[in-house]
Design a protein that fits this description.
The chain is mainly alpha-helical. The protein is built from 33 helices and 5 strands. Strand 2 and strand 3 form a beta hairpin.
Amino acid sequence: MTDIDAILDHCLEAVAQSDGASAASEALTPHRDALLRSERAAPTLVHTLATVDATRAEAEPPALEVLTWLLDETRRQREDGKSPGAGFLDAAASAIEALTPERVTQGGLLALGRAYARAGLDAPGALVALSEQRLAPSPEAMPAPEDLEAQLRDVAAEYANDPYGLHGLIAEMTATLPAEGRAALVGQALAGDLEPPWQTLALYWLLDADPGVRRSAAEAVARQLGEAGLPAGIASMLPLVRSWMPDDDARATLDPALRAGLRSADADGATPGEHGHRIERVRGSLPDGVGAQYFVVDYRDDRGSGLAMVLTKAGFGVRDAYVIADPDRDQREGIERQLGELAECMDIIPDTLHRLLADALAENAANGTPPPHGLVDVVRAGDVDGLHPQPLDSTQWRALLDPEQRTQALSPQKRGRLLRDADQWLLGRDLTGSWFEDDADLAAALAPCTTVRSAERAVRRHLDARRDFWARQCLRTAAVLQHGDAPHEAMQGLMETAEVLHEGREIRRIPLMERIAQTSLDAAAEAAIGTVAADPLAPEESTSALAAILENARAQGGWDSGVFGIYGFLFAVATHPQPPAPSEWIARLLRDLVVNEEDATAAITPVMEIYNGIVDAVTAGAPELPAGCELRDDPVANFWPEGPVGAWSRGFLAACQEFGHLVDMVDDSPEDDELANELHLMTLCLQVFSDRADAERFCAEERRHDPELSVDGLARLASESFMHALGFFATVAPTLQHGEDELWDAPAPQEPVRVEKHGRNEPCPCGSGRKYKRCCGDPRNQA
């Protein structure tokens, strides 16, 4: 059994025992990337579902929920510009293509189609073709259209009060039909009198993602308008729904009949607030790093209370919308808990919700994609009348957020302080920890970078092309803060950040954007670590990939301590009490290790393998030297360049010089003398073999205190204590990294000194009113 097989078995068992989607998600999330990157997970799940017997079993098979969840994650990653899930989609499609009609059941076809439908994805062409082969081996075996219509109406009778559930069921039942078949079925279903729930289904289908289904629904509605008129419930909503539709054949088909038919509609019928809806509370979340933002409307009507939920996403518009009518206490608590895990929500006013949703609908219109059909129910429940697509330009944003133009009236110095206020306020919010870039385009831009500076420049160039996205992030966040408890300066600072982004100010001169740049660098380095499987202390495969790079680096005067030096360097990083960010130590290694862009990409994978192995060994408290890097019997023979341990020590010393280590952080107070002495000794043991000349200089200086000290004696002491020193560092480091500082009272880290740069011709920040170059920027005035 492979690791992926074991992970799949674990996930399927966890899902089988779970009591809901949230519990299943909790079980699957830790293994998401491994499953999406695996070549076995998708075929295994497809083949498991292909042989399901029942067309709709009492308890759905766990494989259906697992496949649905992974397909949904793939869709989200594709929307966010990330690539790990692309292989999963291809693997699932290939597995379906390999199926034959004899190897799949009717229930299997429905289960596979259901997984794609629930994930918001079109079924692969191979699944549609397989369905046609399996269900209709001959034309005579095809069910008659009127039979399908009759089956749908029988199902509809069970869902008379739940059109949303009925729509989902029909979408799952027809997921494996060809597009023209689904469109024809919709036309047949709407051919008769539009009684509940078909009235609402007609509105839903006008917003279908398939243009053919939209056109079929539009033709049916237009025909009803021309012949007998529409019931008031659908007629009152139709103009609004029409404004959400893409500008295509379906809308063109509807428009003439709509203009004629509405003149004869019952004006006293149902309206968006047909059941006496009253909004009790409206909340909006801070948008996350990909621009996803949640809105929740608590409402009450003559039938009880409910929740209307909407998800918008930058670049896509309204992505999800649905209503939960009359939820019980457990449902409410579960929803609030899930919402709290997803986002930080704040109270907003209904007008703000209306403006933000109208702006999101404008993105749907610009993309030529309709909003989700559940928005029909949200508008009815939330009494959000007149919700038409309306983009917000910069002037309208300012009018919404700062109608009195107070920010515009501030001095340049105060507006500069607002930029810092926004950055500092957002620094304390959990959700904005996701404000960084990690898409495939940025990964490609970072691949050839060999220094921190070049990587920083690449990230800033990437952010420069994304100014509009981040400006809108700031504005939508400011809209949520406008009527909440956040400091007014935070909202103003976000407005000002959006303003300077639109003005074209350098990314590095915008505090929030520079923080996003640094977070993006760290995320890229963490992703590189996470994608490489650990192979503890087995250097053969890793060193073979590094051999040519190391030889080239040595010839060019770069890294001169070989692969064992890499191990020493990474051991120092892994045992650092405050480990440097991956972007820092990777860049430091690549600076000496890589001499051209091609080698940069080739070096990352084996270095990550080595690092993961060292981290595992340190965490387990069992650090070892890599194979082939043994201490020699003659202690003096361990010095670099002859001894392999000397190369290890040389790498360890390089990391300590670059980032510091334990010995640099211990307090020099008398009560810490014993610990300090031990730290100095352990550090000396791991560093001494890095250079014999340095060891000789050390002995010469120390002979003032110990006349008998010699290089031979020092080498013998280090050789005898070397493995003990490895264990000492591996024991102390995890304790300090997890914040347990009882080993000593380490000095609090100092706040970095930040020197703000000012343009020479900008107003001086001291408030004098003079230009910076004539005031504090003049060296003669700095005394």
